[in-house]
UniProtKB/TrEMBL annotation:
Residues annotated as domain MlaB-like STAS: 51-126
Taxonomic superkingdom: Bacteria
Any Pfam family hit: STAS_2
Protein name: STAS domain-containing protein
Organism name: Zhongshania aquimaris
Length: 141
């Protein structure tokens, strides 16, 4: 078994067979063994994720699932492409901040690929740039 750290955020009822409710609690855990047993999913797995243009609360459940699968399949570094983001909200920034912190605790680095000026400015205005490790991108604006 690899890393025992967990990346958990309560969002909604699970809609994937890889996510199972933990009894008597309000958290949903990604079943790492289910991911490891599914060879097709591992072959498609990558350490790169492109955020959608509209990264809002409407898509945060899907983003959470993508990030959880990425964390389960990545070993050392993850690249998040935020170049196309033109609309985002606090829910997405919160999810990404927790993901970055969890990745660092697990020994993985998160690198941002050309975050849009909108994304950087929003992160700076809401004081999330430091949690997302976007300080250098914000400074270059």
């Amino acid at each position: 078994m690899t890393d025992s750290a967990e990346f958990v955020i309560l969002l909604d009822e699970p809609n994937s067979e890889k996510v199972s409710p933990k009894s008597n609690e309000f958290v949903y855990l990604l079943d790492n063994e289910a991911v490891a047993d599914d060879g097709a999913e591992l072959e498609k797995a990558s350490s790169h994720l492109a955020l959608p243009t509209f990264s809002t609360v409407d898509g945060v459940v899907a983003l959470y699932q993508d990030l959880a699968e990425l964390a389960a399949s990545s070993e050392s570094s993850i690249v998040v492409d935020a170049s196309a983001v033109t609309d985002a909200d606090t829910a997405v920034l919160q999810l990404l901040a927790v993901f970055v912190a969890n990745s660092e605790r697990s020994g993985r680095s998160v690198t941002w690929y050309k975050p849009s000026s909108y994304f950087c400015e929003l992160a700076e205005q809401l004081d999330y740039a430091k949690y997302l490790k976007l300080d250098s991108a914000v400074a270059s604006l």
